[in-house]
Each structure stands twice: as structure tokens, then as C-alpha cells.
Queue: 3 jobs
Job 1
Amino acid sequence: MFKTKEIAVDCQKDIHSKILKNKDYIDKNEEKRVKFAVVKTYGCQQNASDGEKLSGILENMGYSIIENEEKADIILINTCAVRQHAENRIFGNIGALKSLKKRNPNMIIAVCGCMTEQKEEIEKIKKSYPFVDLIFGTHSLNRFPELILNVLENKKRVFIDNDQDEKIYEGIPVKRKGNVKAFVPIMYGCDNYCSYCIVPYVRGRERSRKPEDIVSETQKLLSAGYKEIMLLGQNVNSYGKNLDEDINFAELLRRIDSFPGEYRIRFMSSHPKDATHEMIDVIAESKHICRNIHLPFQCGSNRVLKEMNRRYTKEKYLDIVKYAKKKIKDLSLSSDVIVGFPGETYEEFKETLSFIEQVKFTSLFTFIYSPRKGTRAFSLPDPISKNEKTMWLNELLRAQEKISFKIYENMLRKNFRVLVESRGENGNTLLARTDSNLTMEIEGGDELIGQFKNVEVIYASGRTLKGKIV
């Protein structure tokens, strides 16, 4: 049992030497038994990718990754800061760990991720959650072994505040969830500064990975049997802008698409202001890139889009969609929508309704505007009540459900190539995914997981698709 005090930490460069040093300390000074770690990740795919790296580091230090918090020697909370609801949920879950820490004072509780890049949130955790031993942000992931070692050796709390290290560290070990799909980050950070978004402030400016590192990682994953690669970035369309090499996202897609075999390439997220005809042409001509583009439009009102600092108009967006539908057979589009941006009127919201009717999105990710302190939109007048915004959101969901229902209905009795991903939660069926990113239930044994199969849709209703192998 130890008391906690703050300590400053110096940065070391070689993550692998840090891992070995940490492992050596544990082997020599800790109880001789299997050590367990829990990594809980909240938020987007980029956070999930970070969580896989943190799990990989822990595993290389000798910890077994488990789900049961009661048995854990380390519990790591990897946080999200995009919406207030997510932060409230995270704080609630951190608070619930107090009783575990009381029963096992030597347990290390660490909090990291986007939320811990905000000074106010760090101070809140320091003062209100004294049982948290370690706090570090997205820029300090490579220092994780060193930070854990400092907690173990010094028996004191460790806080990393305002680490501005924006280098890209290659070679960090990764423990991936499953062996069918894999995340491959191609860039970090964001330069767009949309007026509602906290991401550039917590993730930093755009930094692109070298194309040879991305291609090499992808090739190794495909050789290991992975069937779907998800390329990640806050705005993948701006990939390559800060590199010495003359390369853009379209060219990177070409290189990854060139590998032989049956596999899929997806990417997220794609900003409309940087979506080019070249990128669409590459998708249309490719063998492996899914005919599904996630292209967030956020709002159907040009005035609101300008206030959001999105730097495109709905007419520009529709031009992109028109070109993409012309070039890509069976194109599927998904998008993000924010309802109730400060100052948005009901008439402007109806422009969004009209917009989704015009585009016919396969699916939408919908959100009520969440104020984020530090963003420009935070100080804008916001006279519309939460209840009224909720009514708008429900109206939007009903409109999209009608569109999705027709899309699903049109799939009935048609054949599709699907990737079998996992067994469903009920245990009775397998879950497979279409090229258009829709989930389908099929019958079969676990030996089908990780295989591509041709299926016929035998049931389509609401958000449910069922198919049989043909």
C-alpha cells in the first residue's frame, strides 16, 4: 500500500527499451504471478486504435489483457472528449473504480486520451478522483511504459500536462481485437478547426505517416490473414500535405489496392472540402476499396455550414455526390449530422431534412450539438432548448428510417458478397458485412468467420437484414 504524491517525469526516446526496463522491474520487484490489465476505450476508431497500442505495450510488459476489473493490477481508461455525454459517462465510470482501489490499494488506475488533453479536466481528475495514479494525453502514448514505471518505483501520482510532442512514433506494439479487421492510422491530428469541434485542440495539428510505413503495415496485416483494413485519420482526404514526398490520399489508396488477394479497404473520415474527383476515380477503378464513402455533411443550411467553418456549401457537397454516383456503381453513402447548432432555426433544420431526402444516405450518425469549451461555437448564442432540439432529432431519425427502409427493401432476393466477421451476441447467428457497410445475419459455424461468402438476402425489415449462403 502506498500514499500518492505528484512527481515530474522526464521523457525517454526508445519505447522498446522502456518496455524492457518496466518488465525487468516487475520481474525483480513484484509478486511472482501473472499480472492483469484492463483497457477501456471510449470514442472513435482513432481512440480504439490507440487502445490497441496501449494494450500491446501492456502485453509486452508482461500483463495479460482481461475484461474483469476485479482481477486487474492496472485499469486504463482511454477517454473521448467530443461530446459532453461521453465525458459524463467516463467520469461516472472512473468514480466507480474507487471501491476497487480501496480493496486493492496497489492497483494502478490510469486515465488517458483526448479528455486528458484539457487542463480543466486534468484538474478535475486530480482533485475529485485522488485514487487515480496516472494521467497522460494523446501526445504521450509512447511514454506509457516509462510513466507506469515511475508510478511503480516512486509510489507517487504521475501527471503529464500539456505535452506538445507531435512526432509520429512507429513500431509501437499493437494488440488487435480480433483477426478479421484491422485499424491502420495514416495520419494524426486535424487542421480544420470546425467551430464546434475540440479535436484539433486535443489531437494537435495534422501529421501524416510516411507512405512506406503505412504500406508495410498493411502488407503485413494482409499476410497475417486480415481481410479488412480501415485507414484512419480525422481527415484522410488531406493525407500527405505535410510530407516531403509528393503524395496524396488517392495515390496512397492506389498503392494499398495493388496487393493481390481478396480483401477490403475502408477509410474514415473524409472531409467534403478535400474530396477530389481523383479519389472517387481511384475507388471506382479499384479492386478492393469498398463502394461506401463516409462523407460528413453536418447540416443542410449554407449559413450554418459557414458558422461551423466547414468551408463548403451544400451545392459543392451535392456536386461531389453527383460525380461519385455517376462513377461508382452501387455507391453507398453515410454521413454525420449535427442538430441544433447555436443559432440554427427550424427553417434551417428543414433544409437538412430536404438534403437527406435528396442524397438518400444509406445510414446517418446523428447528434444534438454538444458545447465544447475552447471552441468558437461555445460562445455563440444558443436560444433553442434541448427539448426542442430533441424533437428535431427525432424528426430527422424518422425521415432517415424511411430512406433506409427502402434501401433495405430493395436488397431483398438479391445476392451480395459479404465478409463474415463474428458470431452475433445472441450466439445463434453469424454477423457478416456487405461492401456498403451494412450488417447481415446469416446461419453457419464459426469456421466461416474471416471468409468472404456470396449470400442472398431473404429478409429485410427496418434495420435488420438476414441472408443465406448461395
Note: Residues 6-159 form a domain with the Rossmann fold fold (CATH 3.40.50.12160).
Job 2
Amino acid sequence: MDVLDKKQTILIVDDSPESIMMLGALLHMDYTIRVANNGAKALKIMESDNCPDLVLLDVMMPGIDGYEVCKRLKANLHTQNIPVIFITSKTSEEDEVRGFEMGAFDYVTKPFRPVVVKARIRTQMEQKKYRDFLVNTSYCDGLTAIANRRRFDEHYSVLWNLAIRGHSPLSLIMIDIDHFKQFNDNYGHREGDIILARIAQMLVTSLKRKTDMVARYGGEEFVCVLSNTAIAGAVNVAEKFHTDILSMQIPHAFSTSGSLVTISQGVACIVPTKNLSPETLIISADESLYKAKKGGRNRIEL
């Protein structure tokens, strides 16, 4: 389904059952509704793979209050751009300013005025929809429909800096389809494009964590970045890639690496520091890939 046509999701976070029921009844015809009655549940939902498109967030809740929930959402790479609308009985200018400083997109006071609530939500949802559309268009590889080089470069930069702050390992896998020129020359470029797209989708499907990314790096080459992952974990991912691509059973009668389409992979790992360039890891993974290709292909080198 196109991102412009997809039904959007709202997460209502409120410790008042009456407020949840009222907002749910008001919005369920236009949006998919999810609910949480405290801040901890809200954060758990936001950590899932299916994040909502907007959060209606009560300020005053026991335990983790709305301000703290909003603060954590804005500090998280994967939730920082999701619009938050505070719902509260507080009406002072100071409270409203604090909400915006925390990163809220808008502010609605109790008791609700249904027309106002719907209008403000509609405005934020339309803006979110077109932001997502523009991001998907500019960050998506046109042929394979996975992340492109630009998207990888930005994501890699963020993960590099996070690894510096957390003193955690960052791993990279460079992936090349073996003898792809011979495939194109003998089966045709149209068939080659189809195989590129199929392999790209298989690589993406093989990943389990939403912080990990596979992108098309150029031509028949892909790159995978794995946050907070040591070399053993990266090798496990590379071995899964190897197995999953072989399981596709794509014939390649013109390959010297076997009768099926295979991949060569170069794996590298580093604990980034401020004194190191992000290119260090990329160069190392690329050198490992070169070793894999030089060593006969259809293999993994570290």
C-alpha cells in the first residue's frame, strides 16, 4: 500500500479510562487506535516494529509522566520524528512552553473540544504523511526498493556517533553478488534487475533488529551495518545471508563459484572512538570483501 493511502495509527496514552474511551470514540473511524494507560506501556509500544504515526500523550500520569515519555521519545533515533500532542488539564503558559520545549508538536487542554482535537490531529497527520513520503522517496533505491546509499550514509553516521558515546562495537558487512556481469551478459539485464531486487529483499528480511540496515551500495554490491554487534554476531548475520541466498536456488550456469547465484562477503568490526574516521570501518570491510572475491568467492572473510 502506498504511504499516502495507508491508514495511520494513533497511540493514546492516558491513565483515565474515560479519556481513552472518549478519544477512541472520536477518532476510530479515521485512524487505527492503540492505547496505553501509563508511560512504561507507551514506551514499550514505541519500541516495537510498528510505531504509531502520532502520540496523544497525557501529561499527568503516575510513574513515568508525559514529559518524561516525550523526552525519551525525542532522544530515540527511531521515534524522535513521531509527532506528540500533549493532552492535559494544565492551562498555564508555563506548562505549554515546557511541553513545546520537550518536543511536543501541539498542545490540547481538557476538557476536549472534539472539533479542535480532530483538526489538530488531522494537521499533524497530513504533515507526517508527506514527510514520510518524501523520506521514502529520497532514501529508497528505485530498483530494489531498499535503502539507498544516501540513507546508509546518514544512518551509518548516526550509529557511529552512538557507538562512540556508548563505547560499543559497530560491525559492517560488504556484500557482492558473485559473477553478476556474467549473469547479465547471459540471462539479460531485465532478468538481472529482477534478481537484484529479489536478493535485496531477502537480505532485508534476514535482519531481525530495526536498528540494523541493509542498503544498496552500488551496482550489485550491498552493505549491512549492525549496531552494538561484535565480530561473532556479525559473522552469524553474514552466515545467515549466505544460507538465505543459497536457499533461493537461483540458477547461474555461467558462474565459476557453483551452479547457483552466490554472494561474497567482507566483515569488519570496530569500537569507534573520536580519533577514528568512520571511513576506517568501511575500508576494512571493503578489504575483507576483496579477500573473499580473490579467494574464490562464495565465502566470508573477516
Note: The CA atoms of residues 268 and 285 lie 5 Å apart.
Job 3
Amino acid sequence: MTDQHVDLLIIGAGPAGLAAAIAAREAGIESILVLEREKEPGGILRQCIHNGFGLHRFSEELTGPEYAKRDVDRVRELDIPVRCGTTVLSVSPDRVVTCVSPEFGFSRLSAGAVVLAMGCRERPRGALCTPGSRPAGIYSAGTAQRFVNLEGYMPGRRVVILGSGDIGLIMARRMTLQGAKVLACVEIMPYSSGLNRNIVQCLQDYGIPLYLSHTVTDIHGRERLTGVTVSRVDENRKPVPGAEICFDCDTLLLSCGLIPENELSQGAGVELSPLTSGPVVSETLETSVPGIFACGNVLHVHDLVDHVSAESFRAGRAAAAFVRASSPPAPVFTVKDGPGVRGTVPQKISARPSEDVSLMFRPADVYRNAAAVVECGGQEVLRKKAMIYTPGEMAVLTLKKEVFESLPDKVITVRMEGEKQHG
């Protein structure tokens, strides 16, 4: 027995979950419930007080809380219930969701369709295998961001940042504005993993050095961090002896990548991609389990929230169609990564998509004077040229839905052409 049945249940009230809920309601689904473990809706945007959000979707620059508020206000306007303070424990393949909250206690909810929108988490120190002791003063960049922006605490005064992801770059600027001294941003790869605009606005504008092909090789201090050793690495990412730099610092922020939050997906029997660490989906964003859809950073890590919202609107519309007993067509085409391409989503496409299909991926290296190419059966389907493609920026290739009627093969390949900057 379940405590309640809803037509559509959405897990996560961040930008992905809210957008999916809005789209489903606008598509005519009345019985919707959104579950959120935090005390307020809005997701990670609540702590992202810098601007730069919304340029694609709203044609204006917003802060994270401003962007989130627009979706929260729209959800309230549409009278969509959001149950905050609720932790989801499991999702079954037959779409029964088990959750717990202080207000409702232990609950089992059945759903006509489920949208997974749990977001992502930061890669912890344990996954980095950095040697040294375990003193206080080592934080993920997102944790430091929450301390400073939501809770009013300063993690430290002399800071080194390991990794050049966008959150780390933004925190370099934020810590500087709060009076800390950011000594360096250290990146093991020969290129930054963040957006170029953040490198300029958050590091270069504040005179913060970026050490490419470097990593932290030792951590000093017993009770509290007192310093780190940074070493240059070779083409195999191995430290070069005699190429060390020592920094006296009391804080080390880790910005070493994000991982889709997919424990619930695994429990539901959803097939996961080894490249994105998120679900394998069709163009409707339906997973391998019928009636379970995925969108946002739980599917693959985005760099722009505008893309998250656009993708999640599609998921909400598709979930609404499923609820109305209109099962998505079976996938016919398989999308594969070609040379220079990593983690293309979606991985499967039906013969006659109802909408144009956006293929999203990250280049495996920095490419200059380049083109992203879509091929099928030896035939070029689409070519998109650009002066530069980088791993830090998601590439998007949009195929018109009419294209799929005349493709000569069932395998679609996405590849890069151009001057590879490294290796």
C-alpha cells in the first residue's frame, strides 16, 4: 500500500525540477508533487549570489537567487505543491518512491511518471588521492560558497584553490572580495575546466595566478592547515621532481569536478553512462526504465543553468505525455562519441522525434579553428564551426526533427575536427 498516488512526482526542487514541474503543469497535468530535501526550493542557485545567469533564457543578467525566484514564483502561481525537508530513500522500477520528512514521517508514494532532478555533488578529497594529513581548513568550493553566502562564515584568510572548475573560480573572486588573500588556483590539466569568462572575471581581473599542469602534492599541518606543496606535472600527470612551490595558507578549496547524484537512479535500475555518470536517455529524456525521466545535472553536468532549464522543460513535457498514456516511441538511432568528443547526450533517438533534438557534449581537449561534426552512415549531417571549443564549455548541436526521416544508418556519430592544442 502507498500513502498517496500522483500523476507526476519530481525529485529535486532546483532549477531542473522546477522547470520540469512548470512544463508538465502547462501541458495539462494536474496531479504533481515535487520533493526537496532542503528547507527551501531553488537548489544550488540560492547560494550563487554572483550574476551571469539567465542571459539565454531571459535575455538579461540575473543572480542565482533572482533566477531561482522566477521559477519558484511560477510554481506557486501554478499551485504546484513542493514538499521541502523531505529526503527520498528509494525509487523502485515501478515508480514507487519512499521518503521521509519531519512533517509527514515515513511515506510511500506511487506515481504515473517520475522525473529525476537531484543535481550533482562535488568530488571529495578522498577521490583525489592527495597525500598529507587531515587538518581543518580543507573544503570543497561549494561548501565554502555556502558558508560565505548563506551562513556568514569565512573559511579562512590565505587560500589556495585546487582545480579550476567554475565554482572554484567564482570562489577565488568571492574570497578576495571578503578580504582573503587567494594565493593561487592550481589545475592539473593543461587547460582550465571552467568557462573562459570566469577565468577573466574571477582570476585575471584580481591578479590571481592560474598554474596549469600543476597539482597539490602535499598538505601540511596537524590540527589546522598551515600550507600546501604544489608541483608541476608532466604529460602523464605525474609530479616532476624539483618543480615544487610551497604556499603558506590556512585554507584549501577543492574544485575538482562534479558528479551526478545517481544513487536513486541506480536503485531504480536505471542504466548509467560510464562517460557522464548519469542515466542513458532518449531524446525525450526517458531513461532505460519506462516512465522514469532525468534532466539537469543528475543527467550530465552543465555549465549554464539556462541549458538546464531548457532540457528540463523537455523532460516535463515528455513526462506529461507519458502520464497521458502516450508512451514515447522506441529509440531507433544510437548516438556515439567520435574522436575528440566525450559524453554526448542523448544517447538514443527515436525514428520520428516530436521536437528538434539537441546533442550536448564536451570536447575532450581544446580545439582551435575547429568544427563539431555529426555523421551517419558516412554522410555528414551537420557541421558547426567555431574559433575554439574547450572542455569547460558544453557544446550544443541541434538537429532538425525532419533530418531523421532520411538518415542512411542507425548509428549517429559526433566528432571534432581542428587543431588540437594539447597532446
Note: The mean pLDDT is 94.
